[in-house]
Specification:
The structure holds 3 protein chains of 3 kinds.
Chain A: H1 11-37, E1 40-42, E2 49-51, H2 55-62, H3 64-97, H4 102-110, H5 117-128, H6 134-140, H7 152-180, H8 184-193, H9 197-227, H10 229-235, H11 247-257, H12 261-292
Antiparallel strand pairs in A: 1-2
Chain B: E1 3-11, E2 17-26, E3 31-35, H1 42-50, E4 57-62, E5 65-66, E6 77-80, H2 92-102, H3 107-120, H4 136-148, E7 154-158, H5 166-183, E8 186-191, H6 194-200, E9 203-208, E10 211-216, H7 218-223, H8 228-233, E11 240-243, H9 251-264, E12 272-276, E13 282-284, E14 292-301, E15 306-312, E16 315-321, E17 331-335, E18 342-345, E19 351-352
Parallel strand pairs in B: 3-8, 3-9, 6-7, 7-8
Antiparallel strand pairs in B: 1-2, 1-4, 4-5, 9-10, 11-12, 12-18, 13-17, 14-15, 14-17, 15-16, 18-19
Chain C: H1 2-7, H2 9-51, H3 56-62, H4 72-81, H5 92-123, H6 129-137, H7 148-157, H8 164-172, H9 176-187, H10 190-198, H11 203-214, H12 216-231, H13 235-240, H14 249-262, H15 269-289, H16 291-301
The chains are: A mainly alpha, B alpha+beta, C mainly alpha.
């Protein structure tokens, strides 16, 4: 709130009304529904539902498929975050450093932000497809029989590569703006104090970028968890079978394909808890970020 | 228009009393300067007069009308802000005319009034520019223009010059003074800069910790400070103050303190401070009966005058010398003309009449 | 330093020369890395375009193409105007229109609602301001993907399936925009409201005359981000639109993959790639042309 404000009593309510009503109907109501139905078992023929307590949760957590998806999600998230962060940090550092062509590189490296994840997935299919994929041809020469959608690890590889490709621009933009906000005088002072560019980067530049990197880590985890749906759906050609899948994909799959409303809702709630933990973590980081500055 | 503050107070939500009861009568056409360190309540008082801050207690009159609960727009005031608060998306003319437009003044009249105000402030050629295309001094003038175009009965200035560089500040100070004289509009001006206060004011209100320390003309304030705070705040360099009650350990300091005590004949009441303006101190090379030995630690050359820094009884002491010749020795003897001395009570902080 | 030069001039000069060379070499390396990175980003879409200009027999035989073929007009024409390629009752143009409605509707709706809500939170003395703040900002925690099933049930039960309202409103139900504008409004100097108050502007006038105009670039930046976000939506449109005439172009992309998966007839690779290029072109052009606004909006909004 501001020091200077208006004290009109009804106007702010009027202004808040659209936001609050949309949130109430399309956010809180469904969220509460999810929590509620996670405790019920829906009759497959639609003849009502019975309260089953925590059974949906227990079944979910005990199921092999869920555990498999959970492990894949963790590994996938780690790999996507790691590769997209390191690649974009390298590119941002170089783009900040070069004297010429910096803005051209910037454009070339960021525009993919606007490509929809499913389109990225489709392009991925073109590259990794079993019958005519460019990548498949290429690795076949080395004896790698790449089978997208058939071999678990091959499919996972394709997912990681496409997800990294799609995420590099966002990280690049943030890293570059982080680098550009480092005062020139600091770089100049470092140039006088330290002769090695490599050691300059790790002792001066990187620590100053650490808040950006922490923050991006959270962004990347959220991305890998939720925003990769389109990529995954495309790469498995909407036929999940035994392919790797993330937890979000499984929520969708069990809910819409498997008609397991209770189980899917329980999974939703588990994801909500995961996001809450991430958020608490993030708030802590933000607090620390204030200390940095 | 006359402005009257009767027992005005301000208490914030956390029970901090930012302004203790203030009484003030401002005469028609007078320029009053509220001065004090940051947090002294000067801006709060101004903002209460403007209606930007609620008045916790007391009564505020503009003219004969009590305005405690009147909207800022209806108080017939205009305000110049420290950061000018120009609307960045509007041209200079639109900025100046916005208040008139909201009051339903016709377009032609607005144009005319804006043109007149721009003439006075030498802004005529900038009327179509945006604030971002102006220099700091020009923006300041637009802010002034926005105030005068409405022809209000009270001007409020909230540190309007502190975002300008020193040279421009001096220039604008004179312009503001001239303009205020010419328009004859009652004005309240807030600043933390005591030089600004001295040069601009008809009367100065010195504030400290939400309390009015003294109200008076600049020369009254300077020559007859009512309290320790006023004495030390107004004047550059500030008045020398020697605390006779200060505990000193060094033998030499003890002796000096005794000497000072004897000089001022104040054995009867020790809990006081002695004050003297740096330019009133006289020095000789030889000791005399009523002189105090003084060692100059360092000298600041200001051109028109020279400031010599040293210590008396372990308390910093400055003397200001306007003579053209430099001192020949760093060891001199000071004497204090009786009529230039001030005595202050350590406990109340008030001046003791000699 | 001068001493050193006079004593060891040889050493110094020999030290300096390789350094100059090293500098050149390092800048060559820098550019190589950046060029490789740019190609990595560019090639997939570029090859999608070049491939989309060939007929499907060629593509089927030779895979992705790097040369530009002669089927540009045919493939793009078919993708844009022909019904019954991958979808049965809708052409590319209709899907583009739907995407445009989703993108613009989402962005405009979100901005209007967020500006109003942020204005209420920042500029008014509100008794339950903290409560409102938390009610709104809790929504930042849970993306639509997490609550997708119940959201679908709710929207469906309102009979909003296959409507623009059902498509757009649930996507708006999060506080990203409100949070963004709140941050921006907080950074607007207090004196501006005070000056406006003295100038006789009430809350409504201040919003229209002053706050909205000075937020122009911010609005533009957030519009770009929101438009791209809306345009690129996939899961939600896939669930809520079953009527093909309501398909967005991104939703249409899904039909391609379904056609592949079924594998009944030879896939129309050329047309598929053409549709993909059409689907990415509008958001990419906006992001590239309004790059500075977009970058500013993205970086500022996440602060």
């Amino acid at each position: 709130m501001k020091r200077a404000n208006f004290s009109n009593p009804w106007m702010p309510l009027l202004f808040l009304l659209p936001q609050l009503s949309i949130i109430a109907i399309f956010f809180y109501y469904p969220a509460v529904q999810a929590m509620q139905s996670s405790f019920y078992l829906e009759d497959p023929f639609g003849f009502g539902s019975t309260f089953v307590g925590l059974r949906n949760y227990v079944e979910t957590l005990l199921s092999d498929q869920y555990r498999k998806a959970a492990i894949f999600t963790v590994v996938f998230t780690f790999l996507v975050s790691f590769f997209s962060l390191s690649i974009s940090l390298l590119l941002a550092y170089k783009a900040d450093k070069v004297l010429r062509g910096g803005s051209t590189y910037k454009t070339l490296l960021m525009w993919v932000y606007a490509v929809a994840p499913p389109v990225a997935g489709l392009l991925g299919v073109m590259y990794f497809d079993q019958s005519f994929g460019l990548f498949t041809y290429f690795v076949a020469d080395f004896g790698w029989d790449f089978k997208l959608g058939v071999d678990y690890y091959d499919t996972a590889t394709a997912m990681v590569v496409v997800a990294v490709w799609k995420q590099v621009p966002v990280n690049f933009i943030f890293f570059l703006s982080g680098l550009q906000s480092i005062p020139k005088s600091i770089n100049e002072a470092a140039l006088i104090d330290n002769n090695s560019g490599f050691s300059r980067f790790w002792t001066i530049t990187f620590p100053l970028l650490a808040p950006t990197a922490f923050f991006l880590l959270i962004i990347n985890i959220t991305y890998a968890l939720f925003d990769t749906f389109g990529i995954i759906d495309m790469l498995v050609k909407a036929v999940p079978a035994n392919n790797p899948m993330t937890l979000v994909y499984k929520v969708y799959l069990d809910g819409f394909r498997g008609n397991d409303l209770g189980g899917s809702s329980a999974q939703s709630v588990l994801l909500m808890i995961l996001v809450l933990i991430l958020t608490v973590f993030q708030f802590r980081l933000i607090e620390r970020r204030i200390h940095y500055t | 228009m006359q402005v009257t503050l009767k027992n005005i107070t301000k208490t914030y939500g956390n029970n901090v009393q930012a302004v203790k009861p203030v009484n003030l009568e401002i005469n028609q056409g007078e320029l009053i300067v509220l001065v004090g360190p940051s947090g002294c309540g000067k801006s709060t008082i101004l903002r209460m007069v403007a209606g930007l801050e609620d008045i916790t207690g007391g009564e505020l009159y503009i003219g004969d009308r009590q305005v405690n609960h009147v909207d800022p727009a209806d108080r017939d005031i205009a305000m110049v802000f420290q950061n000018y608060a120009l609307y960045p998306h509007m041209s200079v003319a639109q900025n100046m005319g916005y208040g008139l437009k909201n009051r339903g003044v016709t377009k032609d009249e607005i144009t005319q009034k804006v043109r007149d105000a721009a003439d006075i402030l030498n802004l005529s050629e900038f009327l179509d520019r945006k604030p971002s295309q102006l220099s700091g001094g020009q923006r300041q003038r637009v802010a002034m223009g926005r105030a005068i175009v409405r022809n209000p009965s009270l001007f409020l200035f909230d540190e309007p010059l502190s975002n300008l560089d020193a040279k421009l500040r001096n220039q604008m100070r004179i312009e503001i003074k001239k303009l205020q004289r010419r328009l004859g509009v009652t004005s309240i001006y807030v600043t933390h800069d005591q030089v600004e206060a001295m040069t601009l004011a008809d009367r100065i209100v010195v504030l400290n910790g939400g309390v009015v320390e003294q109200v008076g003309t600049p020369s009254e304030i300077y020559n007859n400070p009512a309290s320790l705070f006023v004495a030390s705040f107004m004047g550059s360099p500030p008045m020398n103050l020697i605390n006779l009650a200060k505990p000193v350990t060094h033998k030499n300091d003890k002796n000096e303190l005794k000497l000072v005590n004897k000089l001022f004949g104040s054995q009867d009441h020790n809990n006081i401070q002695i004050g003297i303006r740096p330019e009133k101190v006289q020095y000789t090379y030889d000791a005399s009966e009523n002189s105090l030995p003084f060692t100059i630690d360092y000298t600041e050359e200001l051109g028109a005058s020279r400031l010599m820094h040293g210590k008396i009884a372990d308390q910093s002491f400055i003397l200001s010398d306007t003579s053209e010749t430099e001192v020949k020795s760093n060891n001199i003897h000071l004497s204090f003309p009786a009529e230039a001395l001030y005595k202050f009570d350590n406990e109340t902080g008030r001046k003791i009449e000699l | 330093m001068t001493d050193m030069t006079s004593e060891n001039p040889v050493i110094l000069s020999s030290k300096e020369k390789p350094k100059a060379k090293k500098l050149k070499l390092s800048s060559i390396i820098d550019h190589s890395i950046l060029i490789i990175g740019s190609l990595f980003m560019l090639m997939p879409v570029l090859m999608a375009f070049t491939t989309s200009t060939h007929d499907h027999v060629t593509i089927h035989k030779e895979g992705l193409m790097l040369s530009i073929g002669d089927q540009f007009a045919e493939n793009y024409g078919a993708a844009m105007f022909e019904k019954g390629g991958f979808t049965e009752t809708v052409d590319g143009l209709t899907m583009l229109m739907n995407s445009l409605i989703l993108g613009i509707g989402f962005a405009v709706g979100k901005i209007v609602i967020s500006v109003l809500a942020a204005y209420a939170i920042v500029y008014f003395r509100l008794k339950f301001a903290t409560l409102a703040f938390w009610i709104i900002f809790t929504t930042l925690l849970l993306p639509l993907e997490v609550r997708i099933l119940p959201s679908y049930e709710v929207v469906h039960s309102f009979g909003l399936s296959n409507t623009y309202t059902g498509l757009i409103l649930p996507l708006i139900a999060s506080a990203t925009g409100t949070f963004y504008f709140r941050q921006f409004f907080m950074s607007v100097p207090d004196e501006l409201v005070e000056a406006a108050k003295i100038d006789g502007a009430g809350p409504f006038k201040f919003l229209i005359d002053i706050l909205v105009p000075i937020s122009k670039t911010m609005v533009a930046a957030i519009f770009i981000i929101m438009f791209v976000f809306g345009w690129n939506q996939y899961l939600w449109p896939a669930l809520i639109t079953t009527d093909e005439t309501m398909f967005t172009i991104i939703r249409g992309i899904r039909q391609i993959i379904l056609a592949y998966a079924e594998g009944n007839n030879i896939p129309e690779h050329g047309q598929a790639m053409a549709l993909a290029v059409i689907a990415v072109l509008p958001p990419v052009l906006i992001v590239v042309f309004f790059q500075s606004w977009f970058v500013k909006g993205l970086v500022e909004s996440e602060k």
